[in-house]
Design a protein that fits this description.
single chain, 126 residues, 5-stranded antiparallel sheet, two-stranded antiparallel ribbon, globular
């Protein structure tokens, strides 16, 4: 089984590609990078779906009588290597900046150690 460095619900920043910069209402790119949440993960393909990133137009067909077909905007999958985790702890010096998560262990049930991801600067769990 393949593993990825991100999980569903993580806050990530897009580090490469066309959706790296935020677009304003006129479609122009601004200076800050796109910070969003991961909505779905596909470890087999090595891809993730991120909110408001890689929005594509999907043509849908009416399936039932009275149902309308049309063009729907949906998020497409991007490679997981194009996103990086973000520290969401407001007291951290790396707040809303890309980090490489550090592995730590905490005690779980039955005295077993559980591997968790932590911010290397503040030490808070991601």
């Amino acid at each position: 089984m393949k593993t990825l460095h991100v999980k569903t619900g993580d806050t990530v920043i897009v580090i490469s590609g066309d959706d790296r910069k935020v677009k304003d209402e006129n479609g122009k790119k601004t200076k800050e990078n796109t910070i969003s949440k991961v909505t779905a993960v596909s470890p087999e393909e090595g891809k993730v779906i991120v909110e408001k990133v890689n929005v594509v137009s999907k043509h849908t067909k009416a399936r039932r009588a009275g149902e309308a077909g049309g063009i729907v905007k949906v998020e497409g999958a991007i490679y997981a290597s194009k996103v990086q985790l973000v520290c969401t702890n407001k007291s951290c010096e790396k707040y809303n900046k890309a980090i490489r998560a550090k592995a730590a262990y905490k005690d779980g049930k039955d005295g077993k150690k559980i591997k968790i991801r932590v911010c290397p600067k503040c030490g808070k769990e991601i």
